[in-house]
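Sequence only, no structure available. Ideas?
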Amino acid sequence: MSLLRFSCRRSTAFVRSRRRLLAAGGGAVLLGVGCSRRESPLAVGAHPFPVYHLVAEEVQRVRAVRWVPVSNATITRFLLRFRRIGAGLLTLDEALRERALGTPLTVVALLDTSVGADQVVVRPGWELPERFVQARVAVESTGVGVITYALACRYLGVPVDWRRTVAIAPSEQLEAWRSRQIEAAVTFEPFASYLRREGGVVIFDSGKMPPLILDVLVVHEEFIESYAREIEAVVAGFFMGLRRWQETPTAVAQTLAPRFGVAAEDVAAFFAGLHLHDCVENRERLRVGFAAECQRLVELLDAVELGPLPRGLVVPASPRFLPSCR
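Reply:
I predicted one. Tokens follow.
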């Protein structure tokens, strides 16, 4: 389908940026992605990580919702910015940075906080700080990768050296590892497990840093009223998936294993480093105090020199799409 056949108006900036998006591996998602018209399904963008698969498994049967798989969160942000999708899974810091650019996003659900799932993995023999500073490190160029790399360097007592980093998304790091293009990678599950199976050694994880990595479901504000039922279905899908995971983990693992390309008994490890936020916690945090959470994150990012973000910057939050909590 040609972009000229989209029924909604294209922005000039979108056309100029299209080649960059195609080069980033997101070209396929432009084909047939819905605009902000009610008769189209709600398009939800997400890159592969454990909670994405948990939600997608529950929501895939909802015809009014269409998943748009992308290779990294940067593409999700791009598509939200130009309304190629109406919702997406991002980390809160990515949502804040996108809001700072003027994209009107609202947080409608808190999914998980990383408490070990984000990791720095190195080849054997590169574990010591004096070796790590010489390593070629694969880092996704924005968001979580940048945060994890900077805090890992601080933890190891070595300087942050962006000259030693290579911009490779976690979904592409295994190939770079096997071809010996890198000695280290800043990654997250399930990709961290893939590297460990290749002999990689974890020298740092998000359990050793402040709770900076919070995955959230965001919606572009232009889609909120016209897609309220679809948004409710996606949010409900997360909590249904969470409940099934808690009550019947073996059955869920068997369902998810083909998505990850692993044996069912390996699936639990992908969730081990995640604190999954239930409905009650969502209702409490989204109703009161979420603006203060955003401010604390802005201050933490500034303290570790990963800003600057404007003081007072918040992503609005809404609990209206949450189901009744039991």
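The longest helix spans residues 228-247.
Hope that gets you unstuck.
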